[in-house]
Each structure stands twice: as structure tokens, then as C-alpha cells.
Specification:
Elements (H helix, E strand, L loop, with lengths): L5 H11 L1 E5 L4 H14 L3 E5 L5 H15 L4 E5 L4 H9 L4 E3 L5 H9 L3 E3 L1 E2 L2 H9 L5 E3 L2 H4 L1 H9 L7 E3 L7 H10 L4 E3 L6 H5 L3 H19 L2
Parallel strand pairs: 1-2, 1-9, 2-3, 4-5, 6-7, 7-8
Helix pairs in contact: 2-3, 2-11, 4-5, 8-9, 9-11
């Protein structure tokens, strides 16, 4: 079962401002990536449900994280049905992220009080997701939906909405400033941060450095 409550996860997302998004079939590679991110200051991390036996890799990561990274909130993304959500919750997921709005996923997560962040692309979807109990809304693909301007437009009539853009977020000051100025709760960042080249070369020290810099940049742009 989840180690952290849905409120703890939502608050930590806001505190750190960034959720790295990553998948690799090799558990050892995933452990190195987690370690680099954790040392850099990451406390919420999304493992992507992708590939055969991904849940087995995730289960190994949960065991590793609870021993070595006690403050890490480890969740799963790309979950599109209730059965998959239940499977990962059984493996210890602290939160579930989906690219779509699926009510059956909401029911499973709410029953176990696990945080659920559905993917939405319109105000109608966002409103329905919040009716179903979503604390944080994922906007995906964020740039294609409308970018920072979309978030700013949503926050006008719905200032209570907590939005996590994913897709098109880059670890650059200008890019991050735009998302947070628009009112982002936090940002999801995948290959723009956790690049294939860094992973292939096993340059985890560089990954840690880039991740720390991204977190520091987020902190800086939020205080101006």
C-alpha cells in the first residue's frame, strides 16, 4: 500500500515544484536514476507504466526506495484503466497519474485514498476530474493543449485548480518561469531532463547536477 497520503503527495509536489518522469526496463538503471534525482532534491518521482513486466520493475524500485530513499514519494504514470491502477497500488504506488480522464481509475484510487492525477485538456474535463476527487490535474500534452496561456486562462475562473503541465516542459529558466508565472502547481519533466544520452552513458553525476539546477531554477523563478 501507499506510504504517503494523497495530501502529502500533493503538498510535496507544490513544495518541490517538479516531478521527474522516467521509464527503463532495467531495475538497476532505474535505481541509479532515482538515486541521482533524490540526491539532487527530488521527493516526488513518476515511473512510467511502459513495456512488459513494468509493474515488476516498479515493485523492485519501491522496495529499494523505501530502504534507501525514505522521503521519496514514488508513483506511476500512463495508467489508463482501473485494473492497472489497482495492480500498481498493490505494488506500493504513492500516486497514480493518467494521460486521460477515467472515472474507474478515480474510484479505485479514492477507495484506497491514493492520489490520482488525471490528464485533462479542457475546462470541462478539469471540472469533472475535480468532482471525482482529483487534487492535482495533469495537463497533457501541455504545449499542444495551449501551453502556459492555457493554465493562466483556467486559473482565471478556477483559481483553486492545481495544474501539473507535462509535455513541453524544459529545464530552462525562461520555460520554467512561463509555466509558474501562469500558475502551475508543479511541472512534470521527462526526456528534456532525463535524456537518453545521459542514461546510455551512465552519467548519473551529470544527471544529478542538471536535476539540482532545475530545482534551484524553479525555486528562483517562483520567488520573483
Amino acid at each position: 500500500m501507499a506510504k504517503f497520503s494523497r495530501i502529502e503527495v500533493a503538498l510535496k509536489m507544490a513544495e518541490t515544484g517538479m516531478v521527474p518522469v522516467f521509464y527503463h526496463a532495467d531495475p538497476e538503471v532505474c535505481q541509479h536514476v532515482l538515486q541521482a534525482c533524490y540526491r539532487a532534491g527530488v521527493r516526488v518521482f513518476e515511473f512510467t507504466n511502459r513495456g512488459d513486466f513494468a509493474h515488476e520493475t516498479f515493485a523492485q524500485l519501491v522496495r529499494h526506495a523505501r530502504t534507501n530513499f525514505p522521503e521519496l514519494m514514488l508513483g506511476v504514470g500512463s495508467v489508463v484503466d482501473a485494473a492497472t491502477a489497482a495492480l500498481y497500488i498493490q505494488c506500493g504506488a504513492d500516486f497514480i497519474v493518467s494521460p486521460v480522464l477515467k472515472e474507474d481509475v478515480a474510484i479505485v484510487c479514492n477507495r484506497r485514498k491514493v492520489m490520482w492525477a488525471p490528464g485533462c485538456g479542457s475546462l470541462t474535463e478539469i471540472s469533472r476530474a475535480e468532482e471525482l476527487g482529483a487534487e492535482v490535474i495533469k495537463i497533457f500534452p501541455a504545449m499542444q493543449v495551449g501551453g502556459p496561456d492555457f493554465i493562466a486562462a483556467i486559473k482565471g475562473p478556477c483559481p483553486w485548480t492545481s495544474i501539473m503541465p507535462t509535455g513541453g516542459v524544459e529545464p530552462k529558466e525562461e520555460n520554467l518561469r512561463a509555466w509558474f508565472a501562469a500558475g502551475a502547481h508543479c511541472v512534470g519533466m521527462g526526456s528534456q531532463l532525463l535524456s537518453k544520452n545521459l542514461i546510455a552513458s551512465q552519467n548519473y553525476d551529470k544527471l544529478e547536477e542538471l536535476t539540482r539546477t532545475a530545482l534551484e531554477t524553479i525555486k528562483r523563478v517562483r520567488t520573483k
